[in-house]
Amino acid sequence: MSNAHDLVVIGGGPGGYIAALRAAQLGMNAAVIEKESKLGGTCLRVGCIPSKALRESSYLFHETQHNLAVHGVKVSGLSLDLATMLARKDKVVTTLAAGIDGLLKKAKIT
Description:
By secondary structure, this protein is mainly α. It has helices at 14-25, 41-45, 48-66, 82-106, and strands spanning 7-10, 30-33. Strand 1, helix 1 (14-25) and strand 2 form a beta-alpha-beta unit. Helix 3 (48-66) runs antiparallel to helix 4.
């Protein structure tokens, strides 16, 4: 593999990886430099996406605890398993980051 690139993008966030993908579509040899272990930027790794995953889990817990009885669904012994909730959040982040990585590999972006 050559070390010469037509475009080098600093940062694998939503602006960076999209720019690299577009460059590859236009026939350029592109590379992305990312200091973090996962692509996707702050929103994907530690911001919006993890927050939304935890919010969804919290919402479902709250709905089960407070609002299902009016539908005839009664739950007893409800508990929260925070470790499982956090593991699900991590899986969501890892899956999405792996998807971005796959897109870059498919486009032959370094």
